[in-house]
Write a sequence for this structure.
């Protein structure tokens, strides 16, 4: 047998069901209060909202209490995340820190930093960005060349990062920097993770406008930026060991198949209670994919919860999920009944806004966080092909 | 969680007694007696019948797991059909006989009349009718659904075959007499079709697992341009895509099986899970079989190579008990009737 896939069935425990209702009630109140719109494309960055979520105990949920965490389960966290995403809550200010940066610091950060930073992530006060990509280091992450050179009490950083989402709103970045050349035996050797304060002297952040017309990612220039020793994360030159599977799983959650969900919701709204057979069929097909993806995604969360290491399964979910969510807007477009000069009461405007937004963001879905081709390579390795 | 002893037993029987030669011989019309007898002796054929009615009294979920294993092996026997027949008998409180069984009708619009044990009507595409000793018929007696156990001896069976060369016969029941009859007021052809769809989804998920294994192995063995074709990135990515379809099919089929095991046939949640499963697995069957064939090159297009045992079954099964279009339309209407704001709660309702 080539690869024995396991997507263990998961029954979300009763506390998850209660939590789901709690989150839904909270979101309903926030929508009614005008904090955000579940169909809006803009304004997804809100520190005020992050603090409210933090105050509910929904950030750093799985972390130890001593660092401001709540010692709740992966499954409970999963439920909170998927409800936020499905309702398009403004999670930009906290999502990266909660999902990726916090866990890295928790696992590899120095004690003093853990005590200082993690509680502030859990309260929603800190925004993080990820400094991996460089002009000449995209899929080939380990080709990074931005340097950190040892100096008195710390390191001096010089070079350039690019595509850094949200850097202009961030308090900190976790950056992957070159501290030694790669070796003949190990081309991944020589890189080190650092915590960098985004307001440090010597950092210049230049906006890059993306094709939707928005300022979301950035180019970052480092000119003799001082980073104290305390901000070293993990072992010098050994970052490749820290890019562990465990962290990869953090990236296989519901954000990998819910990004264009609003298009499907608005299509169902336009379809009304008695759609044509053709439209019903089209909706049915997409719903079946969505439901299956969600089941697989919950299953990965459940396996993590049970202490398993479903690395290939996580890659499979992300590959299937991003391909599906990327193809969805075009299917929605072709299924939609013609609108023309329809009546003002119809939801045409809402539908068109959702379709416009999802169509424009579609190309990035199979690129960010590891391209489709990179993921397929991971799955192929799992199959024993490479 | 499934009972691993039952599944291990099934897997071992298929490994021992369901070689490619057995599958080919069955297509030529030779009944795989050793295979069937082994399955029957282990009680696997009556998994869905309680011990009080002569069955094995296993969990519904174990029966589905056995069907997954049967699908993996392309087992050319009416195992799914006998399980379905046993389930139908159980709904009417009837004892299950030994021997291979099948069911009729297999379509939602099927209609067979019953009056004083005497039947009237015709059913098309009845799987393995000519091999079965009994057909369990869902018939209507004065408008009330009833289950009738009908021996095949003396029935007019006109043979037909599926794309996989398995019997799919037309059975004419006019004048036939049931040996046992029981009312099953809550039941309808829809329920039978739903259970059939869930069963086929498991068989297909199994067949997909098998073609993934076969394709991976082939790619490692077949050498071109001086290296195994597995080393070409285009081939790797095709196989990764196949693996994704296989994984999705397994997850979707399991969701339906679990819902049925928990709630039984009937009810909206089960209806949704069955629709999702048969549709998603059906799509995976089409995509997956195409990739498997591409990776195998011309060899996979020969009768000699066994890839077609699984792929021709996939093409057959995706069409039975409702194809992708059928279930997609059902599901779409379900979703539309609830409305846009109920879509997310609908997706999360199972868990
Ligand atoms: C919206 C968005 C947000 C992002 N945010 C961040 C961020 O916050 N921080 C950050 O560090 N980065 C970020 N990125 C960058 C992202 O991680 C990279 O775009 C990604 O890793 C791919 O690198 P690249 O764009 O240089 O493409 P390349 O690596 O140049 O790839 C181009 C194409 O070649 C293919 N390719 C490359 N190598 C191979 C191979 N070995 N085999 C087969 N095909 C291959 C790729 O799959 C792709 O199709 C973001 C990107 C996007 C689109």
């Amino acid at each position: 047998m080539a690869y024995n896939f396991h997507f263990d069935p998961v029954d979300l425990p009763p506390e998850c069901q209660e939590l789901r209702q709690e989150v839904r009630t909270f979101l309903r109140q926030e929508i009614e209060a005008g904090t955000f719109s579940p169909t809006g494309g803009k304004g997804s960055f809100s520190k005020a909202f992050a603090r409210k979520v933090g105050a509910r105990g929904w950030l750093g949920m799985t972390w130890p209490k001593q660092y401001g965490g709540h010692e709740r389960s992966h499954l409970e966290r999963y439920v909170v995340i998927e409800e936020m995403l499905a309702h398009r809550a403004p999670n930009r200010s906290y999502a990266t820190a909660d999902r990726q940066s916090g866990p890295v610091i928790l696992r590899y950060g120095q004690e003093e930093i853990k005590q200082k930073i993690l509680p502030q992530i859990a309260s929603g006060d800190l925004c993080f960005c990820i400094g991996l990509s460089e002009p000449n280091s995209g899929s080939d992450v380990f080709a990074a060349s931005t340097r950190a050179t040892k100096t008195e009490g710390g390191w001096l950083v010089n070079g350039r990062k690019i595509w850094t989402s949200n850097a202009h709103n961030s308090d900190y970045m976790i950056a992957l920097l070159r501290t030694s050349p790669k070796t003949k035996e190990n081309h991944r050797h020589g890189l080190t993770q650092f915590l960098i304060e985004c307001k440090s002297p010597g950092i210049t952040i230049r906006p890059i406008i993306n094709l939707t017309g928005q300022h979301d990612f950035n180019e970052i220039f480092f000119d003799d930026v001082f980073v104290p020793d305390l901000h070293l994360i993990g072992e010098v030159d050994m970052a490749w060991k820290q890019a562990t599977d465990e962290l990869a799983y953090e990236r296989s959650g519901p954000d990998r198949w819910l990004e264009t969900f609003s298009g499907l919701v608005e299509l169902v709204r336009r379809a009304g209670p008695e759609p044509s057979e053709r439209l019903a069929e089209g909706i049915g097909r997409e719903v079946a994919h969505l439901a299956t993806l969600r089941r697989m995604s919950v299953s990965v969360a459940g396996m993590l919860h049970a202490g398993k290491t479903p690395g290939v399964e996580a890659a499979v979910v992300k590959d299937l999920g991003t391909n599906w969510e990327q193809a969805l807007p075009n299917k929605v477009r072709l299924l939609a009944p013609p609108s023309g000069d329809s009546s003002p009461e119809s939801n045409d405007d809402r539908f068109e806004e959702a379709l416009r937004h999802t169509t424009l963001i579609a190309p990035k879905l199979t690129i960010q966080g590891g391209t489709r081709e990179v993921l397929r390579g991971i799955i192929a390795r799992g199959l024993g092909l490479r | 969680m499934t009972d691993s002893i039952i599944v291990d037993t099934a897997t071992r029987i298929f490994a021992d007694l369901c070689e490619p030669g057995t599958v080919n011989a069955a297509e030529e019309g030779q009944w795989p007696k050793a295979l069937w007898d082994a399955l029957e002796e282990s009680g696997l054929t009556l998994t869905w019948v309680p011990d009080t009615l002569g069955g094995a009294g296993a969990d519904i979920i174990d029966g589905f797991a056995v069907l997954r294993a049967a699908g993996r092996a392309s087992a050319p026997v009416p195992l799914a059909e006998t399980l379905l027949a046993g389930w139908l008998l159980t709904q009417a409180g009837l004892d299950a006989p030994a021997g291979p069984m099948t069911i009729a009708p297999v379509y939602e619009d099927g209609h067979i009349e019953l009056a004083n044990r005497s039947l009237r009507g015709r059913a098309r595409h009845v799987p393995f009718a000519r091999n079965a000793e009994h057909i369990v018929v869902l018939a209507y007696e004065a408008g009330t659904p009833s289950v009738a156990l009908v021996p095949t001896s003396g029935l007019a069976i006109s043979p037909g075959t599926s794309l996989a060369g398995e019997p799919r016969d037309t059975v004419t029941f006019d004048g036939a007499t049931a040996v046992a009859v029981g009312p099953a007021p809550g039941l309808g052809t829809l329920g039978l079709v739903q259970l059939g769809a869930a069963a086929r989804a498991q068989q297909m998920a199994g067949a997909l697992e098998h073609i993934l294994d076969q394709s991976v192995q082939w790619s490692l063995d077949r050498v071109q341009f001086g290296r195994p074709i597995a080393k070409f990135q285009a081939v790797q990515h095709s196989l990764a895509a196949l693996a994704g379809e296989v994984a999705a099919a397994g997850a979707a089929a399991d969701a339906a099986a679990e819902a049925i095991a928990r709630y039984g046939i009937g009810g909206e949640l089960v209806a949704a899970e069955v629709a999702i499963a048969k549709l998603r697995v059906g799509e995976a069957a089409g995509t997956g079989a195409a990739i498997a064939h591409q990776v195998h090159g011309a060899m996979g297009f020969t009768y000699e190579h066994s890839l077609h045992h699984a792929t021709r079954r996939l093409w057959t099964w995706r069409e039975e008990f409702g194809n992708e279009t059928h279930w997609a339309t059902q599901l779409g209407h379900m979703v539309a009737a609830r409305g846009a704001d109920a879509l997310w709660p609908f997706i999360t309702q199972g868990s």
